[in-house]
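Appendix B, example 12.
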Amino acid sequence: MADIKKTTYTADDIHVMKGLEGVRKRPAMYIGSTNNQGLHHLVWEVVDNAVDEALAGFGKKIVVTMHKDGSVSVLDEGRGIPVGINKDTGRPAAEIVFTELHTGGKFNNAVYKSAAGLHGVGAAVTNALSEWMDINVYRNGNIYHLRFEDGGKLTSPLEITGQSRKHGTFVRFKPDKKIFVAVDFKWDTIASRLQESAFLMKGVEFVLIDENSGQTQKLLYDNGLVEYINDVNINNTQLCDIVDFSDSDPETNISIEVAFQYCSKDYNETLYSYVNNVRTRDGGTHETGFRFGLTKAVNDFAEAFKLSKGKKLEGGDIREGLTAVISLKIPEELLEFEGQTKGKLGTPQATAVVSTFIFNKLTYYLTENKEFALTLINKCLDSQAARLAARKAKEEARTNKKLKRDLILSDKLTPAQSKDYAKNELFIVEGDSAGGTAKKGRDRLHQAILPLRGKPLNTDSISIERLLQNEEIATIINTIGAGFGQSFDIEDMKYGKIIIMTDADTDGAHIQTLLLTFFYHYMRQLIVAGHIYMAVPPLYSVYKEDGKRTIQEYAWDDEDLERAKKKIGSGYKINRYKGLGEMNAIQLKETTMDPKTRLLIKVDIEDPFLAERRVNILMGKDTSIRKAWVEENVDFSRVDTFVKEVS
């Protein structure tokens, strides 16, 4: 009989978590995850506070430093966090800001007209998830200091430690290794975020310092969003000049800035949206309003001047090749984000405000700039024609058996037997040898194998004709079955997962990069929707003979190798896999292909701005830009380590 005491649910089982205990217990609720993205979110929360001061008109410089001990500091020139005693708590305001959730000055628009830190939990969450946090406040001619350790425990109460004519706040913290998967801040990630903020805040200087490398970067822009667009499209074929609009809605006090440009050889829509300087990576009501207003303005203009030929343009026709940045400043009383990480705007008023704004501004601009208007309308009509032609070809392919046979460009594909496409997986495999092994080890019902003959084509900045002449790329397009470019329709894809499986070496890494470049340019929705993966084959096999049987453990890195050696015990042997072809079908299946035992890396666009720049730099035609980036970012004295990290 069960123990009644263990199964009874009583009032004593209700646990009230005090202070920051809940944050440490469930960190992902506040920062999204405990991986690299969540780690950097700690920095964003502190930077957002500094940005809010600059937005309010206090301070023209923000300095972020990556220290040698693994900590990060943020220094601003704002007013300094208030240091007086808070009447509700009887404690110094500077203390409760870092220890109490939903505490701050951003709930009152008399202090901040618009701010990123809406929920008042940012600084406290960073403190909760840190080994220690050290704060200096420069205010009233004094330097005030306080310190927290072990997840927000006050160890040095607020006290005056000196005098200074400066004003602002200095926050330095070190993330807790017990919380995060790894504590390794990335220069590129932080620099990209600060550059975005610099673009959005004309006249405010952002400085990033890395004490480890001695590197310093200063970011200051006078033309804001125009320079943002120019930076993103620097290696693209630009169809027109950059267009920028700005205004404020008198009823809601929502301020709007928009800049955009069209590129002639891009089939994607690239849209970066921000609210109070926080990127809304998941979109929201402002993006909905922008798309609606843009579509209406272009269609109304085309119809008024009889340019549409009686066929109304769809939103996708108009946004093909568009790069746009939307930046809103929304008052606190109207600001609604979905989730603490502020990834999606929920403010309902933003839809109508942005839609009306872009419709009015663009309509006037098209009327005053006829040459631009004709160029844009003609591009949209070309996109429409391509979309309709692709739809017609797709319909013919579904009914014409001969055409279906003609579309099969390679006999290398070993298809899956199931027609339940959501459960099917396509393995794009490096080489015929590994492809043959994968065919033997696959699940015939749901796994398809497509071996590659050599390295794929670099599809950055090439013509469609050349793209389709490449057998490897054409076969991938037809195997996936959803079209490509503007005609790509994710609903038609034949696989729930597309898995790139290459050797764990530099050639394998290069193939991965070439394939990802193709997917990024011509099937980006696959990446955004989470359908692209990379297989992770083991680097080592540790084994020994034990009588008539072989004991074996696999290892994926050097640390894992040490674990495997200890588990096997003395007398072990090590096999270093130089390629997929060195494994037999059983080994490849159980380490790399079987969903029960394999490791997969999902490909994601965590930072769209950084992803666009990296593709342009590393895969574009301008070798001088690529050479400069490599010389600046690659430590050739550690080339073995670099190759391993890339692989």
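Confidence is low (pLDDT under 50) at residues 1-5, 402-408, 635-647. The two ends are 55 Å apart (CA to CA).
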